[in-house]
Design a protein that fits this description.
Shape: globular
Helix content: over 70%
Strand content: under 5%
Number of strands: 0
Radius of gyration: 18 Å
Mean pLDDT: 91
Low-confidence stretches: none
Structural class: mainly alpha
Order of helices and strands: HHHHHHHHH
Largest sheet: none
Number of helices: 9
Length: 165
């Protein structure tokens, strides 16, 4: 029993991590104002691990989207994607969100670029979930179609079918 107590005491999460977990839970429950306030309560993001830092930005973007502030969502995601120095696989979902956001707003070139970033990150240290790769190939194909580049779009869709039939 003492050994378990010691183990728990040694691995206490930081206050920032707790606020992030609470914000994520509140966002799941669609309590976006409370989630936003929890994210604002994270004063020192250096206490967060790299995956937590990425999650924080994604959660912020989700909340901004819910508040119809997609420009702020895009700005937060872009800042992370451009400044990220860690494992590229960790920001693959961020680049996917950006690609989807740009495609929705009519900027097919940027959508294609960010979908490509997701696909480039594959094969690194951290595996990227198949769902993220499949979505990136779909967005890339859609963006290429928007740009009237049908053959390239077919190539993206073909890769998607071959890999995830």
């Amino acid at each position: 029993v003492e050994e378990k107590e010691k183990k728990v005491q040694e691995h206490l999460p930081s206050v920032a991590s707790l606020n992030l977990r609470l914000a994520a839970t509140m966002a799941e429950e669609r309590k976006f104002l409370e989630a936003f306030n929890r994210l604002k309560a994270i004063e020192n993001s250096s206490e967060l691990t790299d995956p937590e830092k990425v999650e924080r930005i994604q959660l912020s973007a989700k909340i901004f989207d819910q508040r119809n502030e997609s420009d702020k969502a895009r700005a937060a995601l872009l800042e992370l994607a451009q400044k990220w120095q860690g494992d590229p696989a960790l920001v693959a979902p961020v680049n996917l969100q950006l690609a989807q956001n740009f495609l929705k707003s009519g900027d097919a070139k940027q959508a294609e670029f960010h979908a490509g970033k997701v696909l480039e990150a594959e094969g690194g240290e951290t595996p990227i979930p198949d769902k993220v790769i499949a979505e990136a190939l779909t967005v890339q194909g859609d963006a290429l179609l928007e740009q009237k580049r049908g053959l390239s779009a077919v190539d993206s869709y073909q890769k998607l079918l071959e890999r995830f039939e």
